[in-house]
Automatic annotation (TrEMBL):
Name of the protein this chain belongs to: ATP-dependent RNA helicase CshA
Single biological process term from Gene Ontology: response to cold
Xref: Pfam families: DbpA (PF03880), DEAD (PF00270), DeaD_dimer (PF25399), Helicase_C (PF00271)
EC number: 3.6.4.13
Motif (Q motif): 4-32
Protein family (similarity comment): Belongs to the DEAD box helicase family.
The organism's taxonomic lineage, starting at the top: Bacteria, Bacillati, Bacillota, Clostridia, Eubacteriales
Sorted UniProt keywords: ATP-binding, Cytoplasm, Helicase, Hydrolase, Nucleotide-binding, Stress response
Organism, as annotated: Clostridium paridis
Domain Helicase C-terminal: 217-379
Swiss-Prot/TrEMBL catalytic activity: ATP + H2O = ADP + phosphate + H(+)
GO annotation, cellular component aspect: cytosol; ribosome
Residue ranges of domain DEAD-box RNA helicase Q in the record: 4-32
GO molecular function: ATP binding; hydrolase activity; RNA helicase activity; RNA strand annealing activity
């Protein structure tokens, strides 16, 4: 794990402030190694898996070194798919929050005329798929002769999808003095040839080697959740398992504060740890956790470093970590000294791919579990209460209450009294008041992630979008997962059946004169 912080990498204050706003406390390995080299002006071949923080690794130094002040495009980022282009664009916008950078995603499936109008106004960074970028170049809309940076993200994927000729044509039309950044998970011969032909001789090859990582004493499980149900899902898991000591990991400092606040409001014995808290505060929190005065500790990766607490029964990844190594370090907090430990990870449908990469890297099986129902919670608490009552009776530590029991017996049926007392205990132990027995994400056969060319500028919010989609397609509330609405487009997770009905009954309709198009977001046609 890295022990360097972002301030040591040489980035300017605008970029550092944005990184701090995003809540990251330390760079991942690829960020730590790549950022200083890029700031020095070298071309870089970065070899690392998806989900290691590559966008920040190239985005931060590019935004650090861009010279603003004219309409020329300064940087082109190529991505293999529309969905990745959109994700990279959104990440760059966050990194550029305190700069004057103008950033635009360009890809097929969106009006090219709108993209042309935006480009004509002047764009600093273009994030696009090879096909659409080449189309715009051939129309003389994009001029890359003066760019300072060119980034090829997931280069091996672009080659696998047959983009090699498009990429070479794009490269030939760019400034030969540009700084080139190539990121790829693998290094096939075509990638090496591309690097040799289009990158400078002193290009630096930085590889983040996957270490052999095993977590044999920890049973690993994941729960697939809707983003909106993440807190309730966690509460249900805790209420069923009743961990005696659990560490819950969040990705950001803000996430820690928000989760701690939500859990405390529901009566959990919990405190948080992250880098913005004073050393004394963190030490006191850790002491209380070690001594058993806290059941739950919510922490970021940095704050949890060095925590050595025996008897941690559960580690819960409320957020997925930045990389696989962080995952291994997290769940290594349990299952120590040959004890059995349990690790749970909450993932939304679109995070499932990253979870599978972690599974492959650790060579361990991460099994799926269903989010507990209210019935599951009742059964778990029933068994707990029964055990406690049995142990109390066998221990005969109740004699002082016998006079009270005899008095109550004269007025009420003792079975009713016992049930009432158990209800009081149950109500105190169950934190989340839910109206639905089940909040399972999936209905039948899993989720599809749909891309819809409607967004906020079309008057869409979750309620109006669902109302529009349901006009011709019937689906249930549980058939819909996460909804991410942007200015000009939307991603929505829907069960396979619902997705099929939505596409069949909605494509071609018009909203405010705009023809509706819906596609499977991860399609690579």
């Amino acid at each position: 794990m890295s022990e360097m912080n972002f301030k040591e990498l040489g980035l300017n204050e605008d970029v550092l402030k944005a990184i701090d706003d995003m809540g990251f406390e330390e760079p991942s390995k690829i960020q730590e190694k790549v950022i200083p080299v890029l700031l020095q002006g070298f071309d870089v071949i970065g070899q690392a898996q998806t989900g290691t923080g590559k966008t920040l690794a190239f985005g931060a130094p590019v935004l650090n070194n861009i010279t603003f002040g004219n309409k020329n495009t300064k940087c082109l980022v190529l991505a293999p798919t529309r969905e990745l282009a959109i994700q990279v664009n959104e990440e760059l916008v966050r990194i550029a929050k305190h700069t004057r950078a103008r950033i635009l995603p360009v890809y097929g499936g969106q009006s090219i005329d709108r993209q042309i109008k935006a480009l004509n106004r002047g764009i600093d960074i273009i994030v696009g798929t090879p096909g659409r970028v080449l189309d715009l170049m051939r129309r003389n809309v994009i001029n890359l002769r003066n760019i300072d940076f060119l980034v090829m993200d997931e280069a091996d994927e672009m080659l696998n999808m047959g983009f090699i000729d498009d990429i070479e044509e794009i490269l030939k039309g760019t400034n030969p003095e540009r700084q080139t950044l190539l990121f790829s998970a693998t290094m096939p011969a075509e990638i090496k040839k591309l690097a040799k032909n289009y990158m400078k001789d002193d290009a630096q090859h930085i590889s983040i080697i996957k270490n052999e990582m095993t977590v044999s004493t920890v049973s690993q499980y994941y729960y697939e959740v809707k983003h909106s149900d993440r807190v309730e899902s966690l509460c249900r898991i805790l209420d069923v398992d009743s961990p005696t000591a659990a560490i819950i990991f969040c990705k950001t400092k803000k996430g820690v504060d928000e989760l701690v606040s939500s859990m405390q409001a529901r009566g959990y014995s919990v405190e948080g740890m992250h880098g913005d808290l004073t050393q004394n505060h963190r030490m006191n929190t850790l002491r209380k956790f070690k001594e058993g005065h806290l059941e739950f500790l919510v922490a970021t990766d940095v704050a949890a470093r060095g925590i050595d607490v025996e008897n941690v029964t559960h580690v819960i990844n409320y957020d997925l970590p930045q990389d696989t190594e962080s995952y291994v370090h997290r769940i290594g907090r349990t299952g120590r000294a040959n004890r059995e430990g349990v690790a749970y990870t909450l993932v939304t449908p679109r995070e499932y791919r990253a979870l599978k990469q972690i599974e492959r890297a650790t060579k361990g099986k991460i099994k799926r579990k269903e989010i507990p129902t209210i019935d599951d919670i009742f059964e778990a608490k029933y068994n707990t209460i029964y055990t406690k009552v049995k142990e109390t009776i066998e221990g005969e530590d109740f004699s002082k209450f016998i006079p009270l029991a005899e008095q109550i017996d004269a007025e009420f049926d003792l079975v009713d009294v016992a049930a009432a007392l158990m209800n009081m205990i149950y109500s105190k132990e169950v934190s989340y008041d839910s109206s639905e027995n089940s909040i399972s994400v999936k209905s039948s056969g899993g989720y599809e992630r749909l891309f819809i060319n409607l967004g906020r500028k079309d008057g869409m919010n979750p309620k109006s979008l669902l109302a529009f989609l349901s006009e011709g397609a019937r689906f249930r509330k549980e058939d819909i997962g996460d909804i991410d609405i942007f200015d000009k487009y939307t991603f929505i997770d829907a069960s396979e059946d619902a997705a099929r009905h939505i596409m069949k009954n909605t494509i071609g309709k018009r909203v405010r004169g705009r023809k509706v198009n819906i596609e499977i977001a991860n399609s690579r046609k």
